[in-house]
Amino acid sequence: MRNALKIIGIIALTLLQPFALGQAAEPPAPATANAAVPAVKVTQNDLQALQLRLDSLKQQISQANNYNQLEGPQDRLQALIVDIDRLSTALLPEQAQLRAQLEVLGPAPVEALVPGKSDIAAQRTVLTEQKNTLDTTLKTLETLKESATNLLTQISGIRRSMLESELTLSTHSLLNPAFWSPVLNPSPDDRQRLQAFFNELGVTAGAVWQPGQRFSTVVLVLLALLTWTLGRRMVERWLAWACMNRVPEGRLRRSSLALASVLATLLATGIALELLFYACTRHLPLPSMLATFSQEFEKLAYTCVLITGLSRALLSTQHPSWRLPDIADPVALALQPYARWLAGALLVLVTLVQISNAAGMSNQLVIAGRGIAALVITGLIIALLVRTSTTRRAMAAAGDAPEAASTMAGLIYTIASIAMVTSVIALLTGYVSLARFVTYEVVWVFILLAGFYLLMQVFKDGCEYVFSPRQASGKALKELLGIGDRRLDQVETLISGFGRAGLLLLAVITLFVGGIGTTLGQLISNIVAFLGGAGLRQFNIIPGHLFNAVLALVLGIYLIRTLRRWLDNEFLPKTDMDPGMCASLSTLFANIGYALVILLTLSSLGVKWTNLAWIVSALSVGIGFGLQEIVKNFVSGLILLTERPVKVGDLISISGVEGDIRRINVRATEIQLSDRSIVIVPNSQLISQNLRNVTLGGSAQGVATLELVFPLDIDPEQVQTLLYDTYCEHETILDKPAPFVRFSKLTPDGITLTVTGYVSSPRIVGTTKSDLLFEILKRLGAAGIELAKPTAPAT
């Protein structure tokens, strides 16, 4: 619980520190000369105490023999950094107020340098002395923090080096009797160190069991036991009742019940451990050995509790309908006891190893204890994997439907199997520390994956509930935003996807950011430092800017869409521009607007283009290979929108395709054919190929031409007049240019006459020709004139 509170303090201080610094950096309102300075004092004794804590930690680090002995100093060093930050943050407002008061008084004139000239000069002198003292204190705190931070980095490197050396260290194999010798027959020095540990334990037990303290000790221990047993069950039942009665039916109820079970277990464990710690230290602090052991045991207890709590929540053998993962009932029942067995084995065996570490026993005995723990844990995990595979094969043989195959589940099973084979080989070849590291990492990865899987399910189900149109929250969002069910579902999908992606990224960071040789506190500190700016500052991304970036993106998109609707519906229709030009301007405005919004969003994040040089290089390579066509079509689309060789509404013909341009997009152009179908043509073809634009310029005319073949015995002048009159009398034929009839051809089969007329638009040529042909045939029949009949070919 103490480490948990420290971790929460680290997170809160790191998240709130930018705001505190930001407030301190702003000059306060001008104060009067007599305003009182807040009484936040850091005396010289406080600074000396911090220095003594740092020196003590340096001494402990220099005396460490293995990397486990550095975990406690590393956590205490983080606590020291938190205390230094707290003091510095408390002094910053006082420094800003003193600076503001001195600015109000103004600079000291020359005559004010003589003592006793005025009250203002005396007050300025006092404030200057206070500010100088405060500046010195802040510089001292900054120096201490820098030393502690450097020491923290050195510890990580030392622990990493120690662990790497231990992992590559070859000792006796488990099959060698020399491996078991330090356990079965400890050396006198190990016996003496173990006796010293139990002596300290006896001293602590005697202090809490002395007359007058026994009743309170028994009460505290019983309270701890009751909290762990009855208290945990009561909290779990209360949370389950709250989920059953306050959460609506659906998947959110299942995931919230699973999360409530884990939280109840962790809460009961934390309270029980705190009661036990208070029972042992309410009069005297723990000796050095027991203090180190208690810190490591607390971490181990939380690890075991997480194993059992997450397993019980995800397997849910008592309520199979509440089970979140897709696991068949026989498989879940087969897996159920292994979590308790694994947690119990870890609690017993690792506690013994921690006792040997805290007592400072020999490396041979410590390595032997690690080997035994790794052997038992490896055996349990192998048994779990074999039992799972056997149960699934039995289900398949019985004809029962197993759970759906999952790539992730198969990958986890394969990696766990490979890890266990590696652990067995390492134990048999004498690389005990390597086997211990592999088994512990498998347990850690299980806790990590199970915990983040539960969080992602809760987040997903929570989004589905909040944005459901059947719930009150969804209905309120629909009314507030003025959107429909489909759009609300899209919003839910986006938020759920981004949230789960963020949790998955956090899981990956949690898995890799700590690396080898980091404790749980250091891991949390590294995550907070990364998310708080230490890692993201390489891209100049600060969490305080994320809200501004999201706000700029949302408002920018909304503003562009609003302005585009205003252009399309109000402004552009009132101009003299043709519809094609209006559509081109609207599309060009939207593209430029979206580009500016992206630039504004990146600027709000603090992204500098110099830090994105590698992205530009990668894009250059991609453009040279896979993105060449896309970029070519994009540039061609910009040329079409600016030079406008074609525009929306034009009738064009290209590569045998003739139709009206319906829309010019960034990548391709939509052409609507006469049958109302759409042909998508890449923009680059409209630039690089020969294109016929029938309506370019706005004054194109259509030509309606008919060729008719008549017999040789007709009266040519009569037929010419008939055809000419028919064209002239048709309402769509223009007077200028006037229609005309031409003698085209004379053959043994007949006389070919061509009649031509002009219409106002190429789009009505087909309809006009059809009407004219019907009218001509009607008039020829009335005049008794027949068309020539084709001559049969000679046989």
TrEMBL record:
<dbReference type="GO" id="GO:0008381">
    <property type="term" value="F:mechanosensitive monoatomic ion channel activity"/>
</dbReference>
<comment type="similarity">
    <text>Belongs to the MscS (TC 1.A.23) family.</text>
</comment>
<dbReference type="Pfam" id="PF00924">
    <property type="entry name" value="MS_channel_2nd"/>
</dbReference>
<dbReference type="InterPro" id="IPR049278">
    <property type="entry name" value="MS_channel_C"/>
</dbReference>
<keyword id="KW-0732">Signal</keyword>
<dbReference type="InterPro" id="IPR022249">
    <property type="entry name" value="DUF3772"/>
</dbReference>
<feature type="transmembrane region" description="Helical">
    <location>
        <begin position="338"/>
        <end position="359"/>
    </location>
</feature>
<feature type="coiled-coil region">
    <location>
        <begin position="40"/>
        <end position="67"/>
    </location>
</feature>
<feature type="transmembrane region" description="Helical">
    <location>
        <begin position="503"/>
        <end position="529"/>
    </location>
</feature>
<feature type="transmembrane region" description="Helical">
    <location>
        <begin position="612"/>
        <end position="631"/>
    </location>
</feature>
<feature type="domain" description="Mechanosensitive ion channel MscS">
    <location>
        <begin position="630"/>
        <end position="695"/>
    </location>
</feature>
<dbReference type="InterPro" id="IPR006685">
    <property type="entry name" value="MscS_channel_2nd"/>
</dbReference>
<feature type="signal peptide">
    <location>
        <begin position="1"/>
        <end position="24"/>
    </location>
</feature>
<dbReference type="InterPro" id="IPR011066">
    <property type="entry name" value="MscS_channel_C_sf"/>
</dbReference>
<dbReference type="InterPro" id="IPR049142">
    <property type="entry name" value="MS_channel_1st"/>
</dbReference>
<dbReference type="InterPro" id="IPR052702">
    <property type="entry name" value="MscS-like_channel"/>
</dbReference>
<dbReference type="GO" id="GO:0005886">
    <property type="term" value="C:plasma membrane"/>
</dbReference>
<dbReference type="Pfam" id="PF21082">
    <property type="entry name" value="MS_channel_3rd"/>
</dbReference>
<dbReference type="InterPro" id="IPR010920">
    <property type="entry name" value="LSM_dom_sf"/>
</dbReference>
<feature type="transmembrane region" description="Helical">
    <location>
        <begin position="365"/>
        <end position="386"/>
    </location>
</feature>
<dbReference type="InterPro" id="IPR023408">
    <property type="entry name" value="MscS_beta-dom_sf"/>
</dbReference>
<feature type="transmembrane region" description="Helical">
    <location>
        <begin position="437"/>
        <end position="455"/>
    </location>
</feature>
<dbReference type="Pfam" id="PF21088">
    <property type="entry name" value="MS_channel_1st"/>
</dbReference>
<feature type="transmembrane region" description="Helical">
    <location>
        <begin position="407"/>
        <end position="431"/>
    </location>
</feature>
<protein>
    <submittedName>
        <fullName>Mechanosensitive channel MscK</fullName>
    </submittedName>
</protein>
<keyword id="KW-0812">Transmembrane</keyword>
<keyword id="KW-0175">Coiled coil</keyword>
<feature type="domain" description="DUF3772">
    <location>
        <begin position="139"/>
        <end position="199"/>
    </location>
</feature>
<feature type="domain" description="Mechanosensitive ion channel MscS C-terminal">
    <location>
        <begin position="710"/>
        <end position="787"/>
    </location>
</feature>
<dbReference type="InterPro" id="IPR011014">
    <property type="entry name" value="MscS_channel_TM-2"/>
</dbReference>
<keyword id="KW-1003">Cell membrane</keyword>
<keyword id="KW-1133">Transmembrane helix</keyword>
<feature type="transmembrane region" description="Helical">
    <location>
        <begin position="541"/>
        <end position="560"/>
    </location>
</feature>
<feature type="transmembrane region" description="Helical">
    <location>
        <begin position="581"/>
        <end position="600"/>
    </location>
</feature>
<dbReference type="Pfam" id="PF12607">
    <property type="entry name" value="DUF3772"/>
</dbReference>
<feature type="transmembrane region" description="Helical">
    <location>
        <begin position="256"/>
        <end position="279"/>
    </location>
</feature>
<feature type="transmembrane region" description="Helical">
    <location>
        <begin position="215"/>
        <end position="235"/>
    </location>
</feature>
<feature type="domain" description="Mechanosensitive ion channel transmembrane helices 2/3">
    <location>
        <begin position="587"/>
        <end position="628"/>
    </location>
</feature>
<keyword id="KW-0472">Membrane</keyword>
